[in-house]
Amino acid sequence: MPSDVARHAQHSFRALTRERASVWEMAPDILRAQIAVTGIAAPTGGEARRARWMAGRFRALGLHPRMDSAGNVIARLAGRSDGGAVAVCAHLDTVLAAEGSTPAERDGPRVVAPGISDNGRGLAAMLAVARALGEWRALDRPVDFVATTGEEGAGDLRGAKHYFAGTTPPFAVIAVDGAGDERVVNGALGSRRFRISFAGPGGHSWSAFGTANPIHAAGHATASLASARLPRDGNTTVTVSRIGGGHAVNAIPEGAWLEVDARSTSAASLARVEQELRAIAAAAAQRENSLRRRSTPEITVGVERIGDRPAGATAEHDPLVRAALEATRLVGRGPALATASTDANAAIGLGIPAIAIGGGGRGGDTHTTREWFDATDASVGVERALTLVATMATLPS
Which of 31, 192, 290, 353 has a 20 to 30 Å separation from 168 between CA atoms? Predict the structure, then answer.
């Protein structure tokens, strides 16, 4: 027998018959919105123009959006009660900044543009769900539609962290991120990111030879990190992703730096990696100082944590996950649980049930200039999102 949550999802699916049909009717409009929003440059930290566009679209739906101090755009669809809201999030920022008003080009059934799937699709799908639910008017809980800032790269989930820290804990969180209609991302892939900096006196490469060299220390730290034994629990990775320093080929540099990305599904593993990384950085500086010429100054080392995305998971038996799995089946797709790094991490880190799903269609070449989106049957994903949000917004506590 299906669970109570599954039965409730089935009830919502049937009750949304007209709204689900409207999703298919508005498919061309959803794709046009997706292309339009993708054409507005929104690099991490520069999302303001895209945020204003989203606010305008929410207003056109009869909602009253507000912008918080992190640059998030928040539009609430009222429910019968003022209890914990269902939060639907889609991030505004892109890894590559799209240029021009309509950067997309057609390639057969595909639309090609930087950010067209990640997260042009998520934003357009969120707007479509807001429109459909606004017509349904049967919500028990309010639904907050949140266009967030700083999800990508060095943004460190800035917008999502700010939103969840400043609001009553939501009943459930659903991040709409990219394309797809089968995956249910209930695992939060955590990450900690670091900048290791070495500083010294520098000098001429000949006459000052023997002075401690920050780049030598950075190189030794890089080699040690590359060969470090990683924790066995939690599928952990460590990547030295950027390195630099110096200003001339004939000069001992005054400084050098490297940036490191550590990822794991285990918070404890990330903590152990950080401890090991700090020890490696200190040992690299000590090694270089031990080799320097007497009477020359030592180099110093600093380790700065520049990013921290919580690790964790929303349990498979949680009502939110069960509802997402059933909504996936109801639209004729085979659900698959997955782990990724999304805005849902910020909620999971606070103990709030959260998942991420795609906004429908298919995508590829993500985070490149040739990123693409195929809209064939893309409304399936919007149907799934609509069913899931409605289920959670009417599910008894």
Answer: 192
Instruction: Give the CA distances from residue 138 to residues 78, 134, 141, 390, in Å, rounded to whole numbers and listed in that order.
Output: 10, 9, 9, 8
Where would I find the H helices in 137-266? 158-165, 214-226
Domain boundaries, the chain: 4-189+311-394, 197-309
Classify domain 4-189+311-394 at the CATH topology level.
Aminopeptidase (3.40.630)
Class at the top of the CATH hierarchy for domain 197-309: alpha beta
Which pair of structure tokens corresponds to residue 100? 């021009």
DSSP notation for 269-301: HHHHHHHHHHHHHHHHHHHHHHHSPTTSPPPEE
For the record, the structure tokens of 286 come out as 């000590």
Q: What is the pLDDT of residues 219-239, one digit of tens each?
A: 999 999 999 999 877 689 999
- Calculate the alpha carbon distances from 20 to 15, 180, 385 in Å: 9, 17, 10
Residues with pLDDT less than 50, the chain: 1, 100-102
The bridge status of strand 143-148 relative to strand 73-77 is antiparallel
Helices (H) and strands (E) in the chain, counts: 11, 19
Cross-sheet strand order for the sheet of 362-364: 105-107, 110-112, 372-374, 362-364
* pTM for this entry: 0.93
pLDDT score of 234: 67
- CB-based contacts of 58, cutoff 8 Å, min separation 6: 64, 65, 73, 75, 127, 130, 145
Q: Which residue has the tokens 């500083």?
A: 199
Tens of pLDDT, residue by residue over 179-234, are: 999 999 999 999 999 999 999 999 999 999 999 999 999 999 999 999 999 987 76
Q: Rounded to 10 degrees, what is the CA torsion of 52, 57, 63, 67?
A: -20
Handedness of CA 102, 108, 111, 112 (dihedral sign): negative
Strand partners, 193: 261, 307
- Span 258-313, pLDDT tens digits: 999 999 999 999 999 999 999 999 999 999 999 999 999 999 999 999 999 999 99
Do 372 and 363 touch, CB atoms closer than 8 A? yes
- Site of tokens 């600093």: 302
pLDDT at 202: 97
Task: Say which DSSP state 119 is in.
Answer: T
Q: At 101, which amino acid appears?
A: S
Is 176 in contact with 126 (CB distance < 8 Å)? yes
